[in-house]
Amino acid sequence: MRFSLTLALPLVVSGAFVPFVEPADHSHSFVQSGVAPRGRNVTINGVLTYVTLPKNKKFDKSKAVVFLTDVFGLPSIDNPLLADKFADAGFATFVPDYLNGDALPQGGNSTAWRANHTEAHTTPPLLAVISALKKKGFKKIAATGYCFGGLYVTRLVQNNTIAVGSMAHPSALSVPNDFVLAKDQSDVPVHINNAERDTGFTVALAGVTDGVMGDGQYEPGYLRTQFDAVAHGFAVRADPANPVAVAAKQGAFDETIKFFKEHL
Ligand SMILES: *[C@@H]1O[C@H](CO)[C@@H](O)[C@H](O)[C@H]1NC(C)=O
Ligand SMILES: *[C@@H]1O[C@H](CO)[C@@H](O)[C@H](O)[C@H]1NC(C)=O
Ligand SMILES: *[C@@H]1O[C@H](CO)[C@@H](O)[C@H](O)[C@H]1NC(C)=O
Ligand SMILES: *[C@@H]1O[C@H](CO)[C@@H](O)[C@H](O)[C@H]1NC(C)=O
């Protein structure tokens, strides 16, 4: 008893909580009218899921990407369009509605909203979809998560539920605690795309994460790729008039795909 308390205490008290950050530019999507996602909504194990498949039907049916959205969920067109890019890169891609039909509306009160979207609300639909995918033969599952979704990629890593995880500008993590836990119990390679101007997962917290995971300390594999002159949310939405933002969004996607191809 005493022993386990001594071990557990530093994990509880030494972490910084990564605050929830709303992207500055989420009030509108930059997507031009007429652009539409090419996948479709289906129900998997009772959970609404956007499914988008590679155009070449000979894709590897043993691998899938589970895409964990930000708080704006399936109704925000940026999310299914980004999922389509994973399909274009050769992966069957599934976006479970782990927000339970209740994505944060534009201008909604995110503090009040988050009380209805705790891990207890979010985890069951997520795991219902993942277990159905495994039963369908998708033996190796990669997860990619953005902001709110970053926490869930981290949980799936910690629990060894997936084969590889990538997150961009994650929020609501405890740093370094959540990565110490991953190091203690996970076999899953981890990739992080972070933004130089993120006020949540800051460059300083990214450095703390490297202190746990970097330099070969995390044996399953760890890569962090930082994008300069961009802020929280950059991997999901980019103003087409801003070439730096466009390049960063594409760069984050490319790094995630590269990491998945290497580890899946
Ligand atoms: C999927 O469902 C969501 C939530 O109802 C909706 O906002 C979105 O437009 C639907 N997408 C497609 C491709 O039907
Ligand atoms: C948002 O919701 C929180 C919690 O319910 C509440 O304390 C806060 O006053 C609300 N903020 C606004 C701007 O309505
Ligand atoms: C949270 O859920 C409760 C129960 O369903 C509902 O009454 C309340 O309006 C919800 N709050 C928000 C901010 O959506
Ligand atoms: C991971 O495991 C913990 C501890 O068993 C559990 O509470 C949590 O719901 C799991 N989360 C996910 C996303 O699997």
UniProtKB/TrEMBL annotation:
SUPFAM superfamilies in the record: alpha/beta-Hydrolases (SSF53474)
Lineage: Eukaryota, Fungi, Dikarya, Basidiomycota, Agaricomycotina
Alphabetized InterPro entries for the sequence: AB_hydrolase_fold, Dienelactn_hydro
Keyword Signal carried by entry: yes
Domain spans labelled Dienelactone hydrolase: 49-263
One Gene Ontology term of the molecular function aspect: hydrolase activity
Segment forming the signal sequence: 1-23
Protein name: Alpha/beta-hydrolase
Keywords: Hydrolase, Signal
Organism per entry: Pterulicium gracile
